[in-house]
Specification:
Strand 2, helix 2 and strand 3 form a beta-alpha-beta unit. The protein is α/β, with parallel strands linked by helices. 30% of the residues lie in helices and 21% in strands. The protein has 7 helices and 7 strands; from the N terminus they run αββαββαβααβααβ. The model has no long low-confidence stretch (mean pLDDT 88). Strands 3-2-1-4-5-7-6 form a 7-stranded mixed β-sheet, with helices on both faces. It is globular, with a radius of gyration of 17 Å.
């Protein structure tokens, strides 16, 4: 068993699966509500709840390293495949999927560019990639860094020396990463995952996120197509 699989099966998985279960339909908004007969791949699908509303009418596959997470995803109607993303090729033909979803995946992988190459291979030429990575450099994280509290997001309950995020992206470096993998960003959806305190007026938040995404959004969520 690979070190990656051992870690996610024995350490990360049991701690994180409850949080993943709470993400029911959080990505439903990125797909048309009447989408039917499409092939969708959810890479790192966890329990398979991110866009449950679209599963019955479409062919949705889920890839994950955790057998426990995949067992739940299968109950939700996903066609499941257990493998270590980035270490093993995706078990699909070239240009098989209309859409591929990779949310909060690339920061965990030893070779994220290899994983992106596989994603690009299985994506149709007119398909869309939905991808996100967390932002470790928003304003309250910069305060934590100034206080020598490190880059670990506080709710992850990890130490600097065993943190499961291996790569740290800014908004621009994430775009450059996708470009290096042959993808072109067509839309930034940063406003979909705001993280604000009460003192920032609601009408100001979208402007702040668009103008200063590295300081005022928690995730960099994008839509991309093949370059």
């Amino acid at each position: 068993m690979s070190k990656l699989r051992t870690y996610y099966e024995e350490d990360y998985g049991p701690r994180a699966i409850d949080k993943d279960r709470a993400r029911v339909n959080r990505l439903a908004f990125v797909f048309p509500p009447d989408m039917r007969d499409k092939r969708v791949l959810d890479v790192g699908c966890g329990p398979g709840v991110q866009f449950l509303a679209h599963v019955p009418a479409n062919e949705v596959h889920g890839v994950d390293i955790s057998a426990a997470a995949l067992a739940e995803a299968a109950q939700h109607g996903l066609i499941t495949h257990q493998l270590a993303v980035g270490e093993q090729p995706l078990p699909f033909a070239d240009q098989y999927f209309d859409a591929v979803v990779c949310t909060d995946i690339f920061e965990h992988l030893f070779d994220p560019l290899d994983a992106l190459a596989e994603v690009r291979r299985v994506l149709k030429d007119d398909g869309v990639l939905i991808a996100s990575v967390p932002n470790h450099f928003m304003w309250w994280m910069l305060i934590r860094l100034a206080r020598n509290q490190g880059l670990v997001l506080p709710f992850h309950r990890s130490e600097d020396w065993n943190y499961f995020h291996l790569h740290f992206f800014t908004s621009r470096s994430f775009d450059r990463f996708l470009a290096a993998g042959g993808m072109r960003v067509v839309r930034h959806r940063y406003e979909a995952f705001p993280s604000f305190h009460w003192f920032i007026p609601r009408f100001v938040r979208p402007w702040l996120i668009r103008r200063f995404p590295d300081k005022f959004t928690f995730h960099f969520l994008i839509e991309a197509v093949k370059a």
